Amino acid sequence: MSGPGKALARLCGQLLSVGFDGTEAPEDLLLRIAASHVGGVMLFRPNIAGPAQVAALVARLRGAAPAAAPLLVSVDQEGGLVQRLRAPLTEWPDMLSVGAAGDPSLTERVGRALGDELGALGIGWDFAPVLDVHTNPQNPVIGNRAFGVDAQEVATHALAFWRGLRAAGLVGCGKHFPGHGDTRADSHHELPVVDHDLERLRRVELVPFLAAARAGMEAIMTAHVLYPALDGERPATLSRRILTDLLRDELGFRGVVVSDDLGMKAVADRYPIDELAVAAVMAGADHLLVREPAARQIAAHEALVRAAEARSDVRARVTESAARVAALKAAARVGMPAPAEALPALLGRAEHRALAASFARRSPTAAVARSPVAD
User: Fold this and answer.
1) 176, 188, 196, 352: which one is catalytic?
2) Angstrom distance (rounded) from CA 26 to CA 28
3) Residue 261 annotated to the active site
């Protein structure tokens, strides 16, 4: 590959966060990180055996990246059912319980304490807070992951949680735009549809996202959901009307637009990965999540490179998105993982456990408990 071709491949790589199986980093992944063909790595339960192992893993992943393109390690650590890292780290209640306490200062303390523990492991990006409004008790995937049933209360507590993360040096990611709170299907399995008209969406679903955009949240994650009032043909992740016209131009969001995992069946069963990757970027996504397998990640990267080489409009979007991702990485102030011998004093601290225990718990629904989102 020529010099300009290598540069374009590196730019395209910054648009991807990937996952892998097992508790050690695969050698081929380390090589892709070193070549800047991967911009971030996501951790899931299969990657986690214990704090010292996670710290060593994160150090190896981040150490493989060139100085010019540092690696950002991310995780879904919301609290409740969705927290990949558990004891001996503090185990946090669901955010519906946190929001129900009615004290944003407590919510901010939760975000700060949770962020401090992630930061001790060198993890700089938390895919939280949830900005969805819990308006449908039968929702199979959001439920008590949301901060509440009122849009303004959700905005207040989600932003408080995010401020806590920022104080700990992490960057956050609001999700799932433009609102997954009133779906009757789980996008891990099928394509949900939200049939609300535009007036309802502006009054409820969009309120927390507008607040996040105005506050300067660093990233917002898309929903693999169809919203006929906004775009009758494509789910939000692939819709320019939703990601560019609405989120960027109308709501004024200036951070990184992140796709939800492109392996989820709502989109993966309908589009091949090469089409998905290019379509999402051209719709307005800046960063794509591809959990696994490696062949699919490589196919997504190669599709972006081919499209950027062939089309000036794709090249412009890749350049724009890579600059946003670089700014996101610069905003993450988390250092390398603490030494293994220091971790016991930093994780699961008594004051953190006391804070977590202070919230009256709300039981998760059985439907949410069965969702792959807990994996």
Assistant:
1) 188
2) 6
3) no
